[in-house]
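Entry 14: structure prediction run for Methylenetetrahydrofolate reductase. Input pasted below.
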Amino acid sequence: MALFNFRRKEESAPATGSLEAFLKGYSIEVMPRTAEKVESFRDILPAGTRVYIAHIETPIEDMVATAARIKREGYEPMPHFPARIIKDKATLFDWVARYKDVGVRQGLILAGNPAAQVGDFASSMELLETGAFTGFERLHVAGHPEGNRDIDPDGSDRMVMEAARWKSAFAERTDARMAMTTQFCFEAQPVIDWVNRLQAEGIKLPVHIGIAGPAKLQTLIKFAIACGVGPSLRVLQKRAMDVTKLLLPYEPTEILQDLAAHKAANPGFGIEQVHFFPLGGIRTNAQWVTEHGGASGVPASVSA
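Run finished. Output tokens:
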């Protein structure tokens, strides 16, 4: 199975029914500094899009201001809460209160970079146990189809799966809607196998699969290294050895078509939505989705 679509834009495959349905309700991620460059999100995204706000060395004031703007423009902001950059429980409750004041009712709860730990929290589970998110309508947590060496240094996924079971159990005792949003991936079959394994082990969290949006291959490699992407990185490096492929843009067409076809053939398959990391720019990503039949907004079946 081919891993990438390196065709030029004018040669892109037309949208299929299964891909259009699979892209329905997609979400997308921004950072405050990239959001500042967007004059109007209404010119880029359909109303109702869930917009994650990445918290990377960003003052909380800038995070809240970005969330407020996204909410005003008709979107659902979902800020990150990285446990390891939050000093203590008082800081966490302060952040949550600030977000609630501007209409935020959704959050992505994750551990963050181990080297960046500054205070009392080391995991998303510790944040969830505080009760700080009472009143939130949606709480998403991190998923790792290729594992995570920060969590399992030995290369296994023992601790990752243990955490997933805990998060699934937590979802059963909270009023919030929960889902597992994953790191971006590049090959469909390992994702399919991982999602099926979650279901087989009784982990009931729906999956919002992370997908890298259209970007230059060089850009993709840079972000893949920074984000700790697993076996997929070797594939990118191999591709980079071919100058003809290096010069062509990466598009996520093939992995999405493969996942969409599997979902269409297996309606109970655990991927609920697609979440885009717009590594080549949010406008470029949104245009690509539109050209491939995608519509945003939250489908009725998964609305908060």
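Notes: The first strand starts at residue 27 and ends at 30. Will compare against the previous run tomorrow.
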